[in-house]
Design a protein that fits this description.
584 residues; 9-stranded mixed β-sheet; two-stranded antiparallel ribbon; 29% helix; disordered N terminus
Length: 584
């Protein structure tokens, strides 16, 4: 079944599938495809050259690093202040001579130079995607070794692209979705266009990011070479072909995603099923129309979930079924979710010793808000704390293992809803994600058809509440969905482009119409109220069901919306993971 009733045809210029940890592509060249006003593809001139200037390297002699900052990576940029990148290379990977200006160097790749486990030929290229809330990523404007040192010392090539995003639109330019991921794909294509003059392996490009950044690298990792992005790429003059006319690829080899706020098309529904159905204050208070809305969203989630046809590692179909208490708190999918929660708690007990101090997160990373710290002397003390309001955890001291009995106790103790009803596509278009999908110049827009369907089916009931406003009705959704962006695409097109499950699930028309990254590492703090547990779980399951064998997945107990790791440091763990999966 195609949930969106639209099938995207595979592009005739698609490239070969990823092999182990590689992508087939052409060599550097001079031509790229652009789009005319009629939408046809042609080869045209550009305002900026796509050729990388090998005579313009700067050098940090103290740390033996060559770098270039501010290279525009598309031929016809919409925003030169964002669409430029910086590249940082260990000195061993280049052979250079000083230019007559005394400050720059001309260098060529040295494939035999080595740093750690890598050479100038095999070194993976890592790309940060630091876009919280799907915001923009500012490009580097100056050189700072400390910001890239750990990656370079490990032998990686570090590429930092500027990317447009939710908050970078101007009075004449909309940077809303899918421009952020489009820019990211264009940067990847630029690297492959110039592979003959750049060190590092463009077969081994790995993206990494958290929250909205983890979401955007997830979208990019699932949608490699998708034709949905081609009209956008051509508009900005991204490298589409090499000099011989062979297609270039924007598929990547690996994705590291911490707490990815993704699967936005379904997020309103999953949030209310997972968390909202257990809340009764604020927008979920019984006297509000949004309390009825919350219940209806929660009821709609199992119908959607069951259509996805997800299966566990044993091939068992995962579904939700009706329950005597709560909304569909039964079935194989429910059991799987409780199993994930139980595994997370038992990993925590295995990884740590008591006394143990837990510090709650005071606010979003980087907010400067401090949390509170509590020390638990024994495991029994901690289990007693978890069971303060109800008994939902039992503990076996002999085996040091715990069992979680149900979702409600877990949510009320550890994962309460901190967003209003309509947590992602807000009924008044007031959520951050409404700006992610702004239509026009910064005008927030509705974007979720599943949410629209719930509103349509129940609008008459909602209208009986005193706090209902007709502006919240289905006509607002239909109006937004009918509009088209500057490339001529409607919200359905844009929403599909930003939904990883569109490419990973057979329930959607984009299934197997892209090149999916072969290596994934997903980490999430189980306490976060920013998204449902089901977000990362469904992503993991969809990847495994798709046939991706390397999916390193963990939910981390006692942590919230952060670069969550069971043990160790996130940067060190990421670098080690890259080395463990990359093709030497």
């Amino acid at each position: 079944m195609d949930i969106n009733r639209r099938t995207v045809i595979r592009s005739a210029t698609g490239v070969a599938a990823l092999a182990t940890f590689g992508v087939a592509e052409g060599t550097a060249g001079t031509a790229f495809a652009a789009t005319s006003s009629s939408g046809s593809t042609s080869t045209t001139s550009s305002a900026y050259s796509l050729e990388f200037d090998a005579t313009a390297w700067s050098y940090d002699a103290t740390n033996d690093v060559y770098y270039q900052i501010g290279k525009v990576y598309v031929g016809n940029p919409a925003a030169t202040d964002y669409e430029n990148l910086s590249i940082y290379v260990p000195g061993a990977y280049l052979t250079a001579t000083a230019n007559s200006d005394g400050t720059t160097y001309t260098a060529k790749a040295n494939p035999k130079g080595t740093v750690g486990a890598y050479s100038g030929r095999t070194a993976p290229i890592v790309i940060p995607v630091n876009t919280p809330g799907y915001a923009q990523q500012a490009p580097a404007t100056s050189y700072n070794y400390s910001s890239v040192s750990e990656y370079l010392e490990a032998g990686l090539v570090y590429v930092w692209p500027g990317l447009r995003g939710r908050d970078s639109s101007t009075s004449t330019r909309s940077d809303a979705a899918p421009w952020g991921v489009t820019d990211l794909k264009a940067a990847v294509r630029f690297l492959r266009y110039n592979r003959s003059v750049l060190p590092g392996s463009t077969d081994d490009i790995v993206l990494f990011g958290m929250s909205g950044g983890g979401a955007q690298d997830t979208v990019a990792g699932a949608s490699g070479d998708s034709s949905l992005f081609h009209p956008y790429l051509r508009t900005i003059g991204a490298a589409m072909e090499d000099a011989q006319g062979r297609p270039l690829s924007d598929a990547v080899a690996g994705v590291m995603a911490w707490c990815p706020i993704t699967n936005l098309a379904e997020a309103n529904l999953s949030y209310e099923w997972n968390m909202g159905q257990f809340a009764s204050t604020s927008t979920r208070a019984s006297t509000t129309w949004t309390s009825a809305y919350s219940a209806d969203l929660a009821k709609a989630w199992p119908k959607y979930l069951n259509r996805l046809g997800l299966r566990d590692e044993h091939g068992r179909r995962l579904e939700l079924t009706g329950s005597s208490n709560g909304t569909y708190l039964s079935g194989s999918y429910y059991d799987h979710l409780i199993g994930v929660i139980t595994t997370s708690l038992n990993n925590f007990l295995s990884d740590n010793t008591f006394p143990y101090t837990i510090t709650t997160q005071g606010g979003p990373p980087g907010s400067g808000q401090t949390g509170t710290s509590t020390t638990y002397e024994t495991v029994a003390d901690y289990i007693a704390y978890l069971n303060t309001d109800s008994t939902w955890v039992t503990y076996d001291a002999t085996t040091n293992t715990a069992t979680v009995s149900g979702l409600e106790g877990f949510v009320n103790s550890q994962k309460t809803a901190n967003k209003p009803v309509g947590a992602f596509d807000g009924y008044s278009r007031g959520q951050g994600e409404n700006s992610v999908f702004a239509m026009g110049l910064g005008v927030p827009s509705h974007f979720a058809p599943l949410t629209r369907d719930v509103i349509k089916a129940n609008e008459t009931t909602y209208a009986t509440y005193s706090d209902w406003n007709t502006d919240y009705g289905v006509s607002a959704y239909d109006s937004d969905f009918a509009k088209k962006d500057s490339v001529g695409k409607d919200m359905a097109w844009r929403g599909d482009a930003y939904n990883p499950l569109y490419f990973l699930s057979p329930a959607f028309g984009g299934y197997r119409q892209s090149q999916v990254a072969r290596h994934w590492r997903i980490r999430t703090g189980i306490m976060q109220g920013d998204t449902a547990n089901t977000t990362e779980i469904n992503l993991q399951l969809a990847l495994l069901n798709y046939g991706i064998r390397d999916v390193d997945f963990a939910t981390v107990w006692a942590l919230a919306h952060t670069m969550a790791e069971r043990t160790g440091d996130s940067t060190t763990n990421f670098i080690s993971w890259v080395e463990s999966v990359v093709k030497k």
